[in-house]
């Protein structure tokens, strides 16, 4: 065995050991990965401020503040919707359960289904747990966080670690990349730089396109829902626009919230029909016009691959894993395409 092969085996073992270690620490890595993703989004703003003679540390703090303001605004929108819908559902829950029971029972009997749905118990449960409760949604959520130690630790840990990681990644970006490059074997350095540049180009195009799509949808959904007469059109419309960053699941969650709001407000089929029409037009606008024009096939993932990555990253890293799914899967898919290209040009394949 030559010295080259011996070193290759040693470094391969080191890489495998590092991979196993990272896998075992995947829960701890979540705030670091999330901070890296946010840093990538905010980096152009930091570079622009730095070029205009703003100290890099101050530029990083300014961009973090802007991002925190945006996230706080989205959280307040979600809180506003929940705060309004939960008490309303508490008041109307028993009557809605009774109406559902009245609709389903004759239809089940007509179909010859003898099984009886015990919706009366559902109605009683709603009355006992929602109407009798005079606490607001915010207090309920806070009590849940307080009694769930693991949830509270995760929230506090991410709230502290993510900004810290984000600041250092924005402040020390060039030094960090230089240190990483120093570990790359010199014969692979140029190819590694080209690969990283390809990833950067793909992700920057994708993020810019997604931001344009979000901006247009943030104008469409609130206006369309307001014209339909929905009282919470602004917060639900904006939440729907931001949900574009979580394909399929984000849209489905926003649609469910809008349907519930329409059901509680209108008490008839008009509200449900209007919401379905608005979201149908919005989905056509996004998938047939906006995404092909501004985003295109930047990531190049099959829809099934997108769903699988969302489920897999959500299982591994929780809610934040869903946010990390598409960027991480895009990088992984690009690496697989590069391996496939090298495999097809190798003597092993062509021999």
Question: Could you describe the 3D structure shown?
Answer:
The protein is an all-alpha fold and 351 residues long. The chain has a domain of 158 residues. 85% of the residues lie in helices and 0% in strands.
Helices, strands, pairings?
Layout: H1 3-24, H2 26-51, H3 56-110, H4 119-131, H5 137-147, H6 149-171, H7 173-183, H8 189-227, H9 233-242, H10 249-266, H11 269-295, H12 303-317, H13 319-344, H14 347-350
Keywords: Membrane, Transmembrane, Transmembrane helix
GO biological process, one term: transmembrane transport
Protein name: Putative PurR-regulated permease PerM
Indicate the mean pLDDT: 75
* Helical content class: over 70%
- Principal-axes geometry comes out as globular
* Rg of Cα set: 25 Å
Query: How many DSSP-defined strands?
Result: 0
Order of helices and strands: HHHHHHHHHHHHHH
Query: Which structural class do you get from the secondary structure elements?
Result: mainly alpha
Tally of alpha and pi helices: 14
Strand content: under 5%
Q: Unreliable segments (pLDDT under 50, ≥5 consecutive)?
A: 130-137
Distance between the termini: 24 Å
The main β sheet shows up as: none
Task: Considering the chains and any ligands shown, give keywords for the structure.
351 residues; mainly alpha; 85% helix; Putative PurR-regulated permease PerM
Short summary of the structure?
With 351 residues, the protein is mostly helical.
